[in-house]
């Protein structure tokens, strides 16, 4: 047990001032702190990532087939540059595309002035008939 020094002030001899000596307590705490710092293992900050394994197979030699559907401002529909006379012909060609095991990509290219109902009609027909690879291209013309 640590003893503490008591000091008296003035001539009050009967009153003893008792204080805890905190120096040994601080020394013990510092030693414990150093021991904990030494015994804690150094953490490695590594993130494990599952990287893709390179495939040795060659890429497909033929690029995918692309079907381009053009929509003119008056609702005229073009299939790879050929004018489609009516919706039934369009749906027949979309059925042929949907029936293929490896479907070609269908790119819809609307004119800047075409109304939305023609674009929605083509997209709804394609979706209803099972075309899965469909997209709208040429959106940069609508930025103005």
What topology emerges from the helices and strands here?
Layout (H helix, E strand, L loop, with lengths): L22 H17 L26 E6 L5 E3 L2 E3 L2 H13 L5 E6 L5 H14 L4 E3 L8
Parallel strand pairs: 1-4, 4-5
Antiparallel strand pairs: 1-2, 2-3
Helix pairs in contact: 2-3
Can you summarize this structure?
This protein has 144 residues and is of the alpha/beta class. 31% of the residues lie in helices and 15% in strands.
> Structural class of the secondary structure composition?
alpha/beta
| Count of DSSP strands | 5
Helix count from the secondary structure assignment? 3
Named at the architecture level, the CATH assignment of one domain is 2-Layer Sandwich
Lateral strand order in the biggest sheet: 3-2-1-4-5
Calculate the mean pLDDT score and round it: 82
Oligomer: single chain
Which segments are poorly predicted (pLDDT under 50) over 5 or more consecutive residues?
A: none
Give the helices and strands as they follow along the chain. Answer: HEEEHEHE
Write down the overall geometry.
Answer: elongated
Helix content: 25-40%
CATH topology of one domain: Nucleotidyltransferase, domain 5
Give the amount of beta strand, in percent: 5-15%
Radius of gyration: 41 Å
Largest sheet composition: 5 strands, mixed
Task: State the CATH class of one domain.
Answer: Alpha Beta
Termini separation: 86 Å
């Amino acid at each position: 047990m640590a003893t503490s020094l008591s000091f008296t002030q003035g001539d009050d001899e009967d009153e003893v001032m008792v204080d805890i000596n905190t120096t040994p307590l601080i020394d013990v705490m510092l030693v414990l702190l150093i021991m904990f710092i030494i015994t804690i293992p150094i953490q490695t900050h590594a993130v494990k990532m599952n990287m893709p394994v390179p495939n040795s197979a060659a890429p497909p030699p033929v690029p995918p087939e692309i079907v381009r559907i053009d929509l003119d401002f008056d609702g005229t529909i073009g299939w790879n540059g050929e004018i489609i006379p009516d919706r039934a012909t369009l749906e027949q060609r979309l059925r042929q595309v949907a029936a293929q095991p490896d479907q070609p990509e269908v790119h819809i290219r609307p004119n800047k002035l075409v109304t939305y109902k023609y674009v929605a009609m083509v997209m709804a027909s394609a979706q209803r008939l099972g075309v899965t690879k469909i997209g709208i291209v040429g959106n940069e013309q609508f930025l103005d």
